[in-house]
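Pilot study result, target chain (186 residues):
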Amino acid sequence: MQTRLQNYSMAYAKILNESMAENSPYDRLIKKIDETFEKHGMADEKSLNAKLTALTTMTQGITATSQEIALNLIMQSEELEIKQLMAQKELLLKDKELELADKRLLLADREAKFNEERAKLIQAQAKSEEARKQAIEREIISYDDKLRMQEATLLKDVVFGYSVGGLNPPSNMTSKMLDAVDKITP
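Predicted structure:
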């Protein structure tokens, strides 16, 4: 508020001084009145009254005009400052929006790379699961082969035990032994 008042006072004083300075319309009117009164030889009192009337009228007009001009200048100056501040704020806002857009773009790029890497990982996991499934199948086959071999070995040992003991093994046991041996040999 104080600077506004100081600005107004300075502008008003400057405009008022320039309005009454030498070669101003006011100065020229006073000189014209003096010339006219000298040319026609009129009394100094009438000249003084005419000068005072002109001075009063012009001073009132000049003062009012000076005040109006000073106020307009200050208001325009303040409007320009406000517009400048608004433009700066808008520029800052646009910079922030641009920065945010850049960050969104960077985030989208990172997300795309992440999704790409995740897809690769999922593919690798699928391949790993397939390989694991095949390994489990091989393990099952291997285990089944071991069981068949144990069965054949046990049946062979039983049949051999009967034979060593001088007994004839039951025929179905011998056929089971031969079937078990056939299962493990292709």
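One observation from the pilot: The mean pLDDT is 82. A full batch analysis is planned for the follow-on phase.
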